[in-house]
Design goal:
With 583 residues, the chain is of the alpha+beta class. It is built from 13 helices and 28 strands. The strands form 5 sheets. The protein has a 10-stranded mixed sheet, with helices on both faces. Strands 18, 20, 21, 23, 24, 26 and 27 form a 7-stranded mixed sheet that branches. Strands 14-15-16-17 form a 4-stranded antiparallel sheet, covered by helices on one side.
């Protein structure tokens, strides 16, 4: 009866959220896969991939055919969560502290939580692991995530490798059984069951098919043994098929629980394919001839469409969203916050000013002639301070202005082979003017640094790690655990915010405490705020060297050294910081 009522109401009000006076507002499930490009779906023409459930969703959803995200992980996630350009919210890198979402930004989790939704996130957050940046502090009631940008990266639990790992369960590391993607979907199903009659917002960002460590259950890799290519590609495809199987289970459970019709389900990717054509030079990898990218130029990290055009399917039967309809106007991750809010009858707070816009008019009518020919941009700024026109593209429905050096007519030349910049100076002027105005706004805050908090009541102690070293930096920063294993030589600085004046204990380590790895250094040292360098001898066999000191509330810096007898010096890859007492 409930289902019939929802379908009847949807027939009368097909694009209005069933909130005021209705039994239940729509639930929202937002699934975002990692490093799966537009071409990495069988329905998009991939000659080898097996994705029957994604294909089913493709057939039954509204498809955004010119949908764009950023070219790498954290920038896309920040834009998705805020509806604002990454350069505006302080996230333009994936490491080095430039992946921390500024504390004055409001997230999609905040918006739905404030509207009375139960909120959950399961998988990859990648916008900060500690207070105040972690998901559990940004509007999510239930957060089970790995740390850093991938399972097995430096901030993650030591030894995680995609199987039988420890994940951060709302602030506590807890062991989980099974393969990572299976865990995220399993936790999502638990969250849905526990939500009962409460409306829920579920954010499910998988870490697959990101290959920090290329692992997948053998039976998934074996699905592609008959393809004449290398194992890295077979594993990548196996990861995607594993996601597909989990997606199928989720769809079946939603149907069994009578939730599918009144759930807005969004399925999208976070950037271009990590396995796009010519991703690696031929002399570095085996045969990559089996790669496919739907004719797009570029791959993950590229300012060409192959780096940032993504799939996006929106499925909501009770809201009239389905049937395999296509929207060919320019849309982006920035649009999802205002769109989902409108579909759910939620008014955005006055202080939330998205760069994106609600695409509900397009969902109602894909051929809406009143929809403007809008301008959007993608910047690939993997530097400490952004640089104007660095790996930048300005987009319209028709045009792509790349680095202010190339102009591509995407309708006539979707593969972006021909540079027609000389023939259209008026188009270049309009697009460059749009970027000039944007740059004038956002560059005023480029110098701001989101610091790492220590001593906060909400989280004490905390762990700092070399993944987050900021300039000044020397040598290499081990952004993943193999780099720590290999003992790369490097050093860097943490920008920290001391939350409380008092006595602190700082413990310098080469590996986290759980690894119990004996230091090879003879001396350890640290420096606070560029002041006096404090040194002490390292006791043989110890895994950590403790320093106790008084710290004043406010912003400062921390730099460390572990010096060996042969003259080798590297920074401590991990530092535990604990507030002991006020002074």
């Amino acid at each position: 009866m409930k289902r019939l009522l929802r379908l009847f109401l949807a027939a009368i009000y097909p694009f209005t959220a069933l909130v005021a006076g209705a039994e239940h507002p729509p639930n929202v499930i937002l699934i975002m896969t990692d490093d799966q490009g537009y071409g990495d779906i069988a329905a998009h023409g991939h000659p080898h991939l097996k994705t029957p459930n994604m294909d089913r969703l493709w057939r039954e959803s509204v498809r955004l055919e010119h949908f764009h995200v950023d070219a790498t992980c954290s920038p896309t996630r920040s834009a998705l969560m805020t509806g604002r350009f990454p350069g505006r919210v302080g996230v333009w890198h994936t490491t080095s502290g430039r992946n921390l979402l500024r504390t004055d930004e409001t997230t999609m989790g905040d918006v739905f939580q404030s509207a009375g939704y139960r909120t959950g996130v399961f998988g990859k957050w990648h916008l900060g692991d500690n207070y105040p940046y972690a998901a559990r502090f940004r509007g999510f009631d239930d957060a089970v995530v790995h740390a850093g940008g991938g399972v097995g990266q430096t901030p993650d639990y030591w030894g995680n490798d995609y199987f039988e790992d420890h994940y951060d369960d709302n602030g506590t590391w807890r062991p989980f059984q099974g393969y990572c993607t299976d865990v995220w979907f399993g936790e999502a199903l638990r969250f849905i069951r526990e939500s009962g009659d409460e409306p829920f917002f579920l954010y499910l960002p998988t870490n697959a098919a990101h290959q920090t460590r290329p692992h997948v259950p053998d039976r998934y890799r074996a699905l592609y043994d008959d393809v004449d290519t290398n194992d890295r590609l077979r594993i990548f495809w196996g990861m995607i098929t594993n996601i597909d199987d989990n997606l199928g289970v989720l769809l079946d459970r939603l149907e069994d629980w009578d939730l599918l019709d009144n759930t807005i389900l969004v399925f999208m990717g976070d950037n271009g394919s990590t396995m796009g054509p010519r991703m690696y030079p031929e002399n570095e990898r085996a045969d990559w001839s089996a790669t496919y990218n739907a004719g797009l130029r570029g791959w993950k990290g590229s300012h060409y469409d192959g780096g940032h055009r993504s799939f996006c399917f929106i499925h909501h039967p009770a809201g009239g969203l389905g049937g395999g309809r296509e929207i060919h106007r320019l849309t982006a991750h920035l649009d999802l916050l205002p769109t989902l809010a409108e579909l759910c009858g939620i008014a955005l707070p006055d202080h939330v000013v998205p760069d994106g816009k609600s695409i509900v008019p397009l969902l109602q009518n894909p051929d809406d002639e009143s929809w403007p020919d809008r301008k959007l941009l993608i910047e690939h700024q993997r530097v400490h301070i952004p640089e104007k026109w660095r790996d930048t593209v300005i987009m319209t429905d028709r045009w792509r202005l790349v680095n202010n050096e190339e102009l591509h007519d995407i309708q006539a030349d979707p593969g972006q082979r021909d540079n027609v910049i000389a023939a259209h100076p008026e188009v270049v002027a309009q697009l460059a003017g749009f970027y000039d105005a944007y740059w004038e706004q956002v560059s005023k805050r480029h110098h701001e640094i989101s610091p790492f908090y220590v001593g906060a009541e909400a989280q004490n102690p905390v762990q700092l790690n070399a993944h987050d070293w900021m300039p000044p930096r020397e040598g290499r920063a081990p952004w993943n655990q193999p780099g720590v294993h290999n003992r790369v030589v490097g050093n860097g600085t943490w920008n920290v915010h001391v939350a409380r004046t008092g006595r602190y204990r700082l413990t310098l380590r080469e590996r986290p405490a759980v690894a119990d790895f004996p230091l090879k250094a003879e001396t350890a040292a640290l420096e606070i705020g560029g002041g006096e360098k404090i040194t002490q001898a390292v006791e043989e066999g110890t895994s950590g060297v403790e320093f106790e000191m008084d710290l004043e509330k406010g912003d400062t810096t921390l730099r460390t050294w572990l010096d060996e007898a042969d003259g080798t010096s590297r920074g401590a890859f991990f530092v535990d910081v604990e507030f002991l007492e006020g002074t």
